[in-house]
Amino acid sequence: MATIKIKQTGSPIRRTKDQRATLVGLGLNKMHRVSELRDSPEVRGMIRKVQHMVEVQEG
């Protein structure tokens, strides 16, 4: 199954609680942390919600 790598590039400081929770759900919460998840519509939706704080690297 295809995987996708996500790197956090933005800080969760001064963000809404739902955006912080989305980062935690993606396995991120600190700057420059990288998480590898399987590519699914659910994960893509979470990425879209915090797209200003993450960088996507197709895996």
TrEMBL record:
<dbReference type="GO" id="GO:0006412">
    <property type="term" value="P:translation"/>
</dbReference>
<comment type="subunit">
    <text>Part of the 50S ribosomal subunit.</text>
</comment>
<feature type="domain" description="Large ribosomal subunit protein uL30-like ferredoxin-like fold">
    <location>
        <begin position="4"/>
        <end position="54"/>
    </location>
</feature>
<dbReference type="InterPro" id="IPR005996">
    <property type="entry name" value="Ribosomal_uL30_bac-type"/>
</dbReference>
<comment type="similarity">
    <text>Belongs to the universal ribosomal protein uL30 family.</text>
</comment>
<dbReference type="Pfam" id="PF00327">
    <property type="entry name" value="Ribosomal_L30"/>
</dbReference>
<keyword id="KW-0687">Ribonucleoprotein</keyword>
<dbReference type="InterPro" id="IPR036919">
    <property type="entry name" value="Ribo_uL30_ferredoxin-like_sf"/>
</dbReference>
<protein>
    <recommendedName>
        <fullName>Large ribosomal subunit protein uL30</fullName>
    </recommendedName>
</protein>
<dbReference type="GO" id="GO:0022625">
    <property type="term" value="C:cytosolic large ribosomal subunit"/>
</dbReference>
<dbReference type="GO" id="GO:0003735">
    <property type="term" value="F:structural constituent of ribosome"/>
</dbReference>
<keyword id="KW-0689">Ribosomal protein</keyword>
<dbReference type="InterPro" id="IPR016082">
    <property type="entry name" value="Ribosomal_uL30_ferredoxin-like"/>
</dbReference>
